[in-house]
Amino acid sequence: MATELTVLPTQNLEAFKGVKKLTVEEYFTSGHRTCQGCESALVMKLMAKAAGPRTVILGSTGCMYVANTTYYSTSWVVPWMHTQLGSSGSAAVGTAAGLKVLMRKNRIKQEPINVIAFCGDGGGADMGLSSISAALTYPEYNFLILMYDNESYANTDIQLSSMTPYGANTTFSPPGKARRILHKRWKKNVAGMLAAGHPECRYVATVDASYALEMMNRIRKALTIGGPTFIHSLDPCPKGWDYDPIQSHDLGELAVETGVWPLFEIEDGVLKFYGKSKGIAQGRKRKPVREYLLRQGRFAHFTDEDIEYFQKKIDLMWDRWLIPGAVCIEMGDDIRKQLARAEQEVAAAEA
Amino acid sequence: MSVSTKAAPVADQEMLISGCAAIAQALRLSDIDVVTAYPIRPYDTVMQAVAKLISNGELDAEYIVAASEHDQFEIVKHASAVGARVFCGSSGVGWMYAMEAIAVTPALRLPMVALVGNRALDDPGAFGCEHNDALCVRDLGWMLTWVDTAQEALDTALIAYRVAEDRRVFLPCAIGADGAFLTHSEVLVKVPNKEKVDQFLPKYDRGDKLLHPDNPITIAPQVNEDWVMEIRKQNDDAMRRARGVIQEAYRDFHKIFGRQGGNPFVESYMAEDADVILFGQGTLSLPVKVGIRKLREQGHKVGFVRLRWLRPFPTPEVQETLSRAKAVGVIDRDYSFGSPNHGAVLYNELRSALYDLPNRPHVISFICGLGGREVTLDSVTEMSEILLKVAKTGKVEQPNYWIGVRG
Question: In DSSP terms, which residues pair with B117 in a beta bridge?
Fold first, then answer.
């Protein structure tokens, strides 16, 4: 009786060795009508390019559905299907399960097919969190869930989501005469949460399309490693963040340089910071968050006090969190002492 | 999980099984590919039965235990889009929890087959049978059928795949099964052999609608006011075509299996010469037929018509079987608060279907057997007597009655 897990082979997508070594073909092309400077559209393009032609993509409701699939002018070269707002996890599981069983029963050709389901921050971190969490527990299916996080429900008119930064001006949190700040929640660390809670998930990463090559290679790694995987992308949004579209790339870099957006990957349970976040984690100075915040109209109502509060929260993350950006837990005194004792014992034994 | 598939029994077999287990046998015979389970009573015994079939090597399918009913229906929706034959189901508020996924499935033209083990929409807590759960999809493009016996459940599940997966239709189909009365009651069921089923049910072929890298289509794009009306019309056309496809399927079913030779849409019991007819769906047969036999012994011409398919609604058959009666009483195991005459769903459907007849019978609404309460022989007598009075006097004093309710 077969008891071991059967996982189908994946495509071996080796890392692109440099911008000049990229493939020419595009799988997300013309036909879309995203805003000028839309980083999420760039994420779609890079994601599809990294995955290649033998890929099925499922897209949750959101900007990247509504703006990209106008009937008769779809921008998708690879097969694409809409899924409900909170269903990226279920779409990935259903598609991967369907392909798997049909290959086993010899009804379609046996070959590794990439399955990618994407969602926005609303579809992922709010409504679809349960579905994504469930999806990441099925070790027998190969798929990637990518959350493009533009920090609001940007398609519907910039309403706040649980991923909108503290204090930001959205249509659900407008600064007014009596109350300057309506939105007082702090953004979830979704990648860390999903990595920490899903032992069968072999790969989780945060990415930023301002570092395009590194981003694409993380998508390729997620698809190659197999099983259920998750990537969280931070996407500057000219409309929602209120800035000149020409600044998208700069803002993506500033998010990392100020330490607001730590870049890390967790492969088989081992976390590594990468890009500029690696240096920051090792103690390199971060740029002040003021530089990042004040270039965005959504923070134009911030006073010095608000900026200071924001800076303190970011400092706290880097100084006190068990893993900055990923695990917002500090070790208790008992554990610290225990670890110190263990270190002493090791040192003593070595001596 | 990879399991070897044991050869199915060659000859037809008689098994003492519940309605849910009978449907599980139909799923084995249909060689379904992906099934998603989530627990809620009473439908979930079908998923328990399917799990056993898989663990015993009698069925090779992906068995996915989902995290909610919404996940359940979304997972099979997507599996169906890549060409897998899928099965899903739920009951009561579980079905409602999945409603977003359920609502979009017909427009995607995915031939999902689902079991609704009819259950009251609690609160207040009630496991028992009520039809309001499944009825919520009556306007959405789901084909909707109600079964009366475990045998009919098995047969209808096979027919459901055949009709739903017919390219002329490509619509999902929900099978309504009265909670407990049908889902859990064990009776003798004839389970056909696989060869016959293969003869009846071709493989699911999604053709040029398949989502696959070799067929890189975009499914469910943004169409808005430019196209959505044409697409809704296509759904309507498919539902209209379903009527003929259902008839074909029953004809072939009868040829191959020797069962289901009657009218696919309605079962008629002593209705031909009846002055008054009780009309309903689901597991009403037992009390109603026994009640009618007793009333006939007393010289009252009472009959019964059981609706088998609510969508597509069989208007010609319903008109034909009911037009000669003086009064028709609709037994609704559901409610539709504030609807015309404060009747329930089936009542208003039926009145609409009869409206164009030159000589319409009077139609009375009976709301009965909610929340799993039994429809008793006394209830049947009470309803029949009301109808006989209407038939005799030609007057409707009261259009709606709640039967068997206290206070």
Answer: B177
Looking at the predicted structure, is the pLDDT value of residue A49 above 90? yes
Helices B69-81 and A88-104 sit at what angle, rounded to 10 degrees?
Answer: 50
| Co-location of B222 and B309 in the same domain | no
Q: How many domains does chain B have?
A: 2
Task: Classify residue B48: in a domain, yes or no.
Answer: yes
> Å from B230 to nearest chain A CA?
13
Looking at the partner chain, which of B74, B76, B83 has a beta carbon nearest the beta carbon of A108?
B83
Q: Note which residues in 38-57 of chain A have CB less than 8 A from chain B.
A: 53-56
Tokens 């996890």, located at residue: A89
Distance from C-alpha of A283 to C-alpha of A263, rounded to nearest angstrom: 15
pLDDT value at residue A267: 98
Contact in structure between A57 and B216 (CB atoms under 8 Å): no
ipTM: 0.95
Residue A155's φ and ψ, nearest 5 degrees, are -75, -35
Take residue B142 and report the two structure tokens written for it.
């789901």
Establish if B137 belongs to a structural domain. yes
Residue pointed to by tokens 């019991």:
B269
A2 has a pLDDT exceeding 80? no
Question: Do B347 and B214 belong together in one domain?
Answer: no
Q: Does residue B149 sit within a domain?
A: yes
> How many cross-chain Cβ pairs, A to B, lie less than 8 Å apart?
152
Tell me which CATH code domain A19-350 carries.
3.40.50.970
Q: Are residues B152 and B53 part of one domain?
A: yes
Identify residue B17 by its one-letter amino acid code: I
pLDDT at residue A108 above 90?
yes
Q: Is A54 exposed, middle or buried (0-12, 13-18, 19+ CB in 10 A)?
A: middle
Q: Out of B257, B282, B306, pick the residue that ends a domain.
A: B257
pTM over 0.90: yes
Residue B88 at interface with chain A, using a CB cutoff of 8 Å = no
Q: CATH number, domain at B186? A: 3.40.50.970
Facing residue for A6 by CB, picked from B2, B213, B220? B2
Residues B308 and B381 in one domain: yes
Q: Is position B109 within any domain?
A: yes
Q: Evaluate if residue B255 carries a pLDDT over 80.
A: yes
Same domain, B232 and B328: no
Q: Are residues B187 and B330 in the same domain?
A: no
- Tokens 């045998």, residue located: B151
Which residue, of B257, B287, B307, is where some domain finishes? B257
Nearest CA in chain A to B203: A107
Rounded Cα–Cα distance for residues A321 and A307 (Å): 20
Task: Provide, rounded to the nearest whole percent, the portion of chain A with pLDDT above 70.
Answer: 99
pLDDT in tens, B120-160: 999 999 999 999 999 999 999 999 999 999 999 999 999 99
- Chain A positions touching B211 (Cβ under 8 A) are 56, 79, 81, 95
Assigned token pair, A94: 């259903």
Kindly state whether residues B320 and B226 are assigned to the same domain: no
Q: What is the pLDDT of residues A293-329, one digit of tens each?
A: 999 999 999 999 999 999 999 999 999 999 999 999 9
B144 and B291 belong to one structural domain: no
% of chain A surpassing 90 pLDDT? 94
- State the smallest CA–CA distance between residue A30 and chain B in angstroms: 14
pLDDT band at B1 (very low <50, low <70, confident <90, very high): very low
| DSSP β-bridge partners for residue B403 | B368
B77 contacts: CB under 8 Å, gap ≥ 6? A94, B86, B101, B104, B105, B108, B110, B112
Written as one string, the DSSP assignment of B138-151 is TTTT-EEEE-SSHH
pLDDT at A35 (0 to 100): 94
| pLDDT tens-place string over residues B350-398 | 999 999 999 999 999 999 999 999 999 999 999 999 999 999 999 999 9
Q: What percent of chain B has pLDDT over 90?
A: 97
Structural domain span for residue B376: 267-403
For residues B357 and B325, the answer to whether their CB atoms sit within 8 Å is no
Q: What is the DSSP letter of A328?
A: -
